[in-house]
Amino acid sequence: MRLHALGAETEQLIEDAGLSPTEVRERVSVALHEDFAYGPDVTTTATVPANQRVRAAIAARQPGILAGIAVARTVLDMVIGAGDWNAVEQRPDGYGLTSGSQVLILEAPTSGLLVAERTALNFLCHLSGVATLTNEWVTALGPATKVRDTRKTTPGLRTLEKYAVRCGGGINHRMGLGDAALIKDNHVAAAGSVTAAVDAVRKASPHIALEVECDNLEQVAEAVAAGVDLVMLDNMSVTLMREAVQIGLASSHSVSFEASGGLTLGNAAEVASTGVQFVAVGALTHSAPVLDLGLDIDDVVAG
Fold it and tell me: Which residues pair with 214 in a beta bridge?
């Protein structure tokens, strides 16, 4: 099937989200190929009148936070053609949905809409699920502690999933391996000590943000003494987190703390009360339930 170019409105929405139209189009192309790899949509071709147009709506079937509207529009543009469908009403990303909230009301050719439906919803439901789970963490933590994502993302979807985290009120950790340094236990083992690992990274990349993962208070004290920007407290108890933060407060330089491992929504408030500035939650992207959204045809408007 021939795929169409993106319309100007969709491109602008993608850019406003801080995303790349080229990258979004590439991700959508891969998804559409999965549907078209075995031939055209035989069901739609057999059952839908060729010239029929409908009004339809994508609506939420449960409460949540919307994310990915520009990606869903990309699917519609590429399958139908930007000039052959139009949005009557549209909610922005980050919008708080209630059960029954209409996300997108549109008019389009029935055949193209049904072909695009599942791929558009796959992106929209997944990204909205990420945003919704993130927002639950934001609420549970309170304003003083920020939730951050990790690199535990779906291969090929990192940029989109991290965008969805931002829609939910979270913030992004490093996007890849080169935009920040994170010294973990295996790096410490390879270098010989926390201090040796910190010195090596500073020598190689003196201007990059530097974080060290620590398993115990001795490592915390060593990392703080080495002057790191951020200390990750890995699988520590709340009591140990409080003690670690006190080590930082006693330091002559400013250091931030991030909790990681063993975190749940149930203990989020207690973790935040320790004074950590961040929590790192891989589940935001690797375990977020999809938000239930569906598309229904409301009326036949032509054909």
Answer: 233
Q: Which positions are annotated as active-site residues?
A: 118, 152, 184, 213, 234
Please give the structure tokens belonging to residue 33. Answer: 């190929």
Residue 90 has which token pair?
């549209």
Tokens representing 105 are 């009301």
- Joined together, the tokens standing for residue 94 give 């980050």
Give per-residue pLDDT as tens, 201-256.
999 999 999 999 999 999 999 999 999 999 999 999 999 999 999 999 999 889 99
Distance CA 9, CA 7 (A): 6
Ranges of H-type helices in the chain: 8-16, 21-36, 42-47, 69-80, 110-141, 158-167, 185-191, 194-204, 217-225, 238-249, 268-272, 283-286
Q: How many separate helices (H) and strands (E) can be counted in the chain?
A: 12, 12
Give the DSSP letter of residue 7.
P
Predicted TM-score (pTM) of this structure: 0.96
Q: Which tokens sit at 74?
A: 């990309």
DSSP category for residue 243: H
* 29-53 confidence digits (pLDDT tens): 999 999 999 999 999 999 999 899 9
What domains lie within the chain, and their CATH numbers? Answer: 8-130+289-302 (3.90.1170.20), 139-286 (3.20.20.70)
Identify whether the C-beta of residue 110 lies closer than 8 Å to the C-beta of residue 52.
yes
